[in-house]
Amino acid sequence: MQQPKLSARGISLWFGEKQVLKDIDIGFQDRQITALIGPSGCGKSTLLRCFNRMHDRTPGVRLSGHCYLDQEDIYAKSVFVAAIRRRIGMVFQKANPFAKSIYENINYGLKINGVQENQRHELIVQSLKESFLWDEVQHELHKPAAQLSGGQQQRLCIARAVALRPEVILMDEPCSALDPLSTAKIEELIKNLKADYTIVIVTHNMQQAQRIADNTVFMYMGRIIEADTTPNIFNNATNELTSSYVHGKFG
Amino acid sequence: MKRKLLEYLEWGSLLMSTTAVCFFLVVILWDLASKGAGSLSWDFVSRFPENGMTSGGILPAIIGTVMLTVITAITAAPFGICCAIYLHEYAPDTPVTRLIRASIRNLAGVPSVIFGLFGLACFVQALHLGTSLLSAGLTLGLLSLPYIIVTSEEALHRVPVSIREGAWALGATHFEMVRDIVVPSALPGIITGIILAVSRAAGETAPILFTGAAYYINNPSFSLDQEFMALPYHLYMLSTQHQSVDLVRPLAYSTALVLIIVVLLLNLTAFYIRYKSSKDHATA
Ligand SMILES: Nc1ncnc2c1ncn2[C@@H]1O[C@H](COP(=O)(O)OP(=O)(O)OP(=O)(O)O)[C@@H](O)[C@H]1O
Ligand SMILES: [Mg+2]
């Protein structure tokens, strides 16, 4: 197998006294979609947030181990966190647009990352098209983002992340607050993004994982129990916990 | 049956307290308006006092209060906002930070006359600013500072973690996140807090008593290093210190009415800002 694009090596994480991640070892292949599944509270979001150092400013967090983007240690002292986050985008469970216009929501990331002014417009339009939002908003780009529907807001957040042309996109249950129609749109979008990006997506929806993911990782109580191709996880799981979870026996 | 009775009792007592509060508010305003409206006229707010304050207007006191308010806002707001941003966005959560925060809250409860004394000792005497508009403005600035810090910190606190994380995830540094996302979102709340703090300061008498307010000034220059007239102090003098208190009583009421209107206008501005921003930020 080729070198993974993004990987965790021996990651353990504590919130105060409580250990939430236990010696996590996992790699994500370039231009593949990997689904992270597991019962609520098993540490999926916590693991995902390790990859773009979202725990950095949370008080009481202790982390050991390493994360690598290509060969580069994400937690190395010499690393500029903002630069890593530009390369590893994130979409959150609840859409979190800024209190700015639709256009400015995307423009902001480009601006702070030093993209030339004359290239921004092009990128904004392109990312809106890639997020299937363009047709709906092209005539009202300067309207406040808060006036969009929940599904549109989430697609705007994806557009915002995609506009920076990151290498990896982390998604934490991006569809959990959306109706089936918006969910279908976003799944379509994720499948398209696969051509250019490495995608890691947390989901509680087993059907969704099977629809979109190439690989699936099953987590339980802070550990990775099994990681394999999606068909294998759902049909020929080697671990009993995995097969009973994916068949809805617990969780 | 018993629970229903209790509910009526609860509802009744709440309603009664609300009515009582509103009743006194209305009585006070009515009293002021009915006794003050008689001598309130365009001349009253646009002319200088005449004949030992028994006739003429209160223009210098209005100008004095407005200038004082502006100085208060200019001196207190930048420090207050910066302090709140530091405390809320940068300071680590240590015992020292918590002590500082508690001290600021306590400072907000210190009687205003103490600020007046401090202003006298610090600005008037130690810094040789004399009894002047500047000394009084700085004193009121100090008085407003704790309120501004507390309300600004609360406004910053209302900015959800989720949009902060959204900015980080796009590669914003902590400073960029604070400057571009947090402060703009919190700004309406911060401005509201500043206006309310300053409008409260505008009505204060004690802090300006020793630091620069004067009873009557012939040919006021309205410069920073001179004494000045101010509405609350003018009101205090008219109602207690004037040689013919009864004669100027209607003028005192009109002065009070003008002061209330000035403060009310400031408060309305604050409410308007809050109303507007709550409409702009309503999420779908
Ligand atoms: N900031 C925090 N402080 C303390 N404990 C936390 C914090 N965030 C998460 N935890 C704990 O860490 C554990 C893992 O949480 P995490 O959010 O990663 O779970 P999850 O797998 O994403 O669950 P869900 O599917 O419900 O989103 C939980 O037990 C949670 O209580
Ligand atoms: Mg989660």
Automatic annotation (TrEMBL), chain A:
The keyword Methyltransferase does not apply. It comes from Mucilaginibacter aquariorum. It holds the Pfam family ABC_tran. The keyword Nucleotide-binding applies. It comes from the Bacteria. This is Phosphate ABC transporter ATP-binding protein PstB. GO terms for molecular function: ATP binding. InterPro entries: AAA+_ATPase, ABC_transporter-like_ATP-bd, ABC_transporter-like_CS, P-loop_NTPase, PstB-like. Residues 6-246 form the ABC transporter domain. Keywords: ATP-binding, Nucleotide-binding, Phosphate transport, Transport. PANTHER family: ABC TRANSPORTER I FAMILY MEMBER 17.
Automatic annotation (TrEMBL), chain B:
The chain crosses the membrane at residues 12-33, 58-87, 107-127, 133-150, 181-202, 251-273. Residues 62-270 form the ABC transmembrane type-1 domain. It is a multi-pass membrane protein. InterPro entries: MetI-like, MetI-like_sf, Phosphate_PstA. Pfam families: BPD_transp_1. Its main location: membrane. It is found in: Cell membrane. PROSITE patterns: ABC_TM1 (PS50928). Keywords: Cell membrane, Membrane, Transmembrane, Transmembrane helix, Transport. Belongs to the binding-protein-dependent transport system permease family. CysTW subfamily. PANTHER family: PHOSPHATE TRANSPORT SYSTEM PERMEASE PROTEIN PSTA-RELATED. This is Phosphate transport system permease protein PstA. The lineage of its organism: Bacteria, Pseudomonadati, Bacteroidota, Sphingobacteriia, Sphingobacteriales. The gene is pstA.
